[in-house]
Amino acid sequence: MKSVTERFLTYIKHPTTSDENSLSFPSTKQQLMFADFLVRECQTIGLADASVDHFGYVTASIPATTTNAPAIGFIAHMDTSPDAKGENIMPHIVHNYDGGIIPLNGLTLNPEEFPSLKQYIGDTIITTDGNTLLGADDKAGIAEILTAAQYLISHPEIPHGKICIAFTPDEEIGKGADHFDVEKFGADFAYTLDGGKIGELEYENFNAAQAVIHIKGKSVHPGTAKNTMVNAALIGAEIASMLPEKEIPSKTEGYEGFFHLCSFEGNVSEATLRYIIRDFNTETFEHRKNLLQLIVARKNIQYANALTLELKDQYYNMSSQLRDCMQIVELAKQAMFACDITPVVQPIRGGTDGARLSFMGLPCPNLFAGGHNFHGPYEYIPVSSMEKAVQMIVKIAELGTTLDFPKKM
User: Which one of 170, 171, 188, 202 is the catalytic residue?
Assistant: First the structure.
């Protein structure tokens, strides 16, 4: 059997950066190429029904070894974030980490800046070389799921229900569930392996919206501009200053929501502000959207309808869909305890495929994949965390045979 580390190091060689500006699905051809590769991986370990559809979704299953057990799904995404370079990844393997500074190309992983490193003294850590992201989000999840699948196939004495596996494209740009066929997938419930540090167990996530504000200015010569010029860039700055200055990502944590100015492009003639809005609470989420609408409305009175606002919801807090099936969260906790993992139950300050899938009829909490500092060159993952994730998946499959969960027809 391949180790989870061998798989991971193989998978990150495949560039799969998604592209939010693409009109195709999946957004990049590289993801389709990786999907074809994963189908062959699945077939090699004995997942005979492995296939990829024209949208790029890879699915496979392991038949049940016992009757009347629920079908459990395990899901990870194939794409990596467009926030950092994802090609020519050159992993740096640190054996028996001594707790010191890890030099990268022009950068350092310093435990004073990243104190999580101190938890892994003596462990083997895989880092970037400082030029790219690593891809643990979420190729670690893929490696863990397939390693666990091979273990279950090789150990038929372990009782389990049907195990359903899926690898999705374009999760990083919020489209991972756009064409997911829940009925065809066949699971009664599922877990995404898309979390961070070891022990993470998440069944709450942000409500999310995107706002794009377009501003039309009037450009004239600045020497004769009095009472005539309308500076679109300055209007954009006024809007940014009207939002709560402490309700931004760098000043919030836990259950605190925020407005995040993702980009601001403009000049005198025109400007565009792109925001994301995040909040766990439904009422305050609506309040945030209403506040932005009110600000734009007031500026339109001041500047003769120079502004337009495009506001759309992206996803919602999956806790509302899971409150009636919390036994699947308890199942994950039990499996972790059985593997000597301390569950770390916390809200996701973001979203996963599982959030949208939960609203599509597939209850789907999120589990750790083991990595840290996703989406950038400081990303790293301890080997022990990936190995524990494999154990956890196997144990969930085994303990799932005792779970009283309504099976889908």
Answer: 171
